[in-house]
Amino acid sequence: MVGRAHGFVARCKEDDAFPDFLNYHCIIHQQALCAKMLNMKDIMDVATKIACSIRARPLLFRAHLEQMDSDHLELLLHTDVRWLSRGRFLQRFRELCPEIREFFHSTKHAENSQLSDEQWLLDLAFLTDLTNMLNELNLNLQGKNKNVVNMISSVNAFRNKLQHLSSKMQRRDLGSFPNLASELENQQRDSAQLDIERYKEQINVCLSEFDKRFQDFALLEPVATFMCNPFRETTDIGAVASRIASLFHMNTLELEDEILTLQADIQLKSMAQEPFWNLLREETYPNMRKCATFLTALFGSTYLCESAFSHMKCIKSKYRSTMTDDHLEACMRLTLSSYSPNYENLTDSLQCKSSQ
Q1: The whole model's pTM is what?
Q2: Which residues constitute the domain of residue 252?
Q3: Which residue windows are transmembrane per the record (predicted)?
Q4: Helix (H, G, I), strand (E, B), or coil: what is residue 299?
């Protein structure tokens, strides 16, 4: 529907009569797709196969874990539909690897050779660490009060983190990879014996995927940077005004005048804070106020829509399938609203009457 090559957006871009518009994909969806690009399918396939084999005998495996006084009493499963399940599954699987090996041995089940393969276990530990980092980013992007500026900042911070991780891996510094360092310790090896290029390549693949999938925000990022700090002295006023004008269909010369006037306003400079753009007078800065409104109104993800469907699924359970549309609408409004009534004031405003 919105594909850049053959979708609705591409068709609109091809039509010269269609006005220019800003388009981008859901940031959370893009981040989830980046996480799938890691070239370690063999790790996930083997781990998933072992987990499914164990889940065929859940009670026996649970009794085995209880007997071994394990910290966990079950093995999680992974599904691509739930984005965070990959990291949680890998972390739990790695923590239970000794118990899984012992379980296969005690039940005389054909043990998977990878569970004794040192290189495979190192790859599993590395993938667990990197996937946990991607999960942290995904959780950071979720939430009701996230605008596109916050989300771009989070993505850029993670890209910088990947570059830093690549440099640390080159120096054989495993401080940011606790599972990988732990597995090396279990194998009584040090980082000097680690195939650094193997893991550095995976980090660079992830970084290049982020660069490719978030290139839509290259046009928006300079505008967001300026709107967050309009008094920065190094701002290229002409470039910023031209970018804002092209994105939001404004007059470049008027924008340049407003930016120059704004940066020279000593009183406004001392009041720079989050609701700063509300302080600008409409007659003096009409374009600047409009740009701030446009930028704030941009939704960075479809989180609100998806959370609404999740709430609706809970409300419309099989025991409440006959509820009316009006009742469902009222329940959805209560569930999705962030408004919290002041019950004390409401009770104080009521007139108490004694029953006769």
Answers
A1: 0.76
A2: 221-297
A3: none
A4: strand
